[in-house]
Each structure stands twice: as structure tokens, then as C-alpha cells.
Structure prediction request, 352 residues.
Amino acid sequence: MTLPEANAPAITSENGSTSDAAAATNAAKAAPCTLAVVIPCHNEEQVLPETTQRLNNVLDALLAKHIIVAAKIYFVDDGSTDHTWRTIEDLAAQHDGRVHGLKLSRNFGQQNAILAGLLTAPGDVVISIDADLQDNVEAIEEMVRAYSAGAEVVYGIRRDRTTDAFFKRATAEWYYRLLQAMGVKLVFNHADFRLMSRRVIEELRNCNESNLLLRGLIPQLGFRSASVYYDRQPRFAGETKYSISKMVSLAITGVTSFTEIPLKVITLLGMCVSVISFGLGLWALFAKIFLSTVVPGWASIVIPLYMLGGIQLLSLGVIGQYLAKIYFETKGRPRFIIEKTLSPIKTEQVKG
Prediction:
């Protein structure tokens, strides 16, 4: 999937304008860089050896072409209950100096596991990718070339969602469009396969929020960006660790962490219901005074009662979600805790 420099990905600047990638490549400094690949893992012992092998092949090719001068792989064990950590230890022993590991003290969630790796792994550029090999590792070379052409952030974007089941595909696309309609900066069909420069990582370090959705947070940082498209692959082994409840939770986090639109909607809804209720009150008074044959009905009482009750409960639920986010943010608890590491990095300097 190597992309010639003449056909390099289009680079998007911070203000949204685009420039010809070939011209940017000629003008950019082509200094070799050091690279770190961060991989969150939760019960992924079956796939890790193959993931390591494929990444090694890609990184060796980059080293041979002098595109990078050093490359390391950082597996982040997010509270696995199988032999994931033992597998990481074995891989680190087999690939001395190339493979490293971070073990979190418990399961902090995928987003926090990625953050732990990003803030810990050294390198001029850091790439995050899932362990299941659904993201095409061959796209890494294109990402590094886009970085050499001047991009500070490079998004890995799947070409389509044909490998997903109909329900997941429909809900995912609907969710992306919903957030974009709410004004949230989100890259369509992009998840957590991305490259970031050291400059972007250091700015990310200053974001201390506990409710993380990196695919929404990274675009908020700005910086010049590029996109690399790839075909999504089937999962190599094992089963997905993202249950429906986790996906719903992540979706709610995306809405409540980046937009106040739901609060405005329920405010507008409350105003509309108040106007309708006031109008119904005037009509009832008019009917009582001027209409002699008014038969009170069950539906006219129960339907408005249920409607108002449902709207009130919905509004309280939305407000409760925002209050819960405030509650967790004010606690200031660490987003991750590193229990042990196979890397010589001084992890005590990394704030979770």
C-alpha cells in the first residue's frame, strides 16, 4: 500500500484549507524520525503474536527505506484476565528492544489504555492501533509519509463498513452524522487508528478530562492533518471486547463531552410543552364557560399526563448524564494506573 510521493494524501491545515501533497512533500523537511506504536489489549492473547509479526514486517521495511531510524511497539494490558500479560512478556523477550509492555492495575477502558500508551511511549511520532488486526498495518507507511509531508495528525479512515453487521453499520453511521449535526468535530469512519506527532502528544497531555473519547478530542486540538484510507480486515482471532453496553456508553460520552445541544433541546422542548399546556388550559376554560355539552374523557386526561411525565423523565435523564460527568471530573481520580512496565521509561513521571 505504499503511496508514491506524487500521489500522497491530501493534507488539511488547522483552518481546514487543503494543499497539494506533492508540493508540501518537496517543501517539507524529510528528516528521519523515531516511531512508537501503541496497542491497547484486553484479553487478546490469541492475536498478539500475529500482531507483533505483522508490525515487525512493516517497521523493518520502514527502517530499510530509512524513513524511520528507530521503532518500538508498546502493548498496554488493560486489566486482562487471560494470559495477555504473559504473552507480552514472552514477545518482549523474543524481540528484545523492539517490544515493550505496560500493565495497568485494572481495566480502565480502551480509551484510557490508549492514553496511557500515548503519554508513556517515547518517539517523534506515535501511532495507536487496535490489537485485532482489523486496521490494516500496511497503512502505517502512508501515515509516516504524510507526517514527513507536514501533517501533525494523520487519521486512518476505513473506506467502507461492509465488514460490519447491518445493525452496527447503520448505528455507527447514524451516530457519526448525529455528532456532526451537533457541531462536534469528528472524522467520519475514523476510530482509534491514527498517527500523532510529539507536539500533539504534549498538547494532549494538557487535557485532563476523565470522560475520554479520543476520536472526538484529537480533532479539537487542531494542527495540520491528513487522512489515509484503508480496507478494514476481518478480526484475526478471538471475539470483540466491545459489547453493546460499552458502545452505548462510549456514544453517550461522545455526545455529553463535546456538545451542550441536548440541554438546549430539552429547554426548547420544555418551552413548547409549556405553550401547548397553556393553550389547552385556555381551551378547557372556554369549553367550560361556553359549551354546554362537554363530556370529560379518559384519553384527554391520561394521554397528556403520560406525555408530560415522559418528557420530564427524559429531561431529568439528560441533565443527570451531564451532572454525572461533572461529578467524575471534580473527583480528579487518575485515568489510569501503571502497575508494571517492561520498558525503561520512568513511568512515575506520567500523570494518569
In short: Confidence is low (pLDDT under 50) at residues 1-29. The chain is about 45% helix and 15% strand. The radius of gyration is 25 Å.
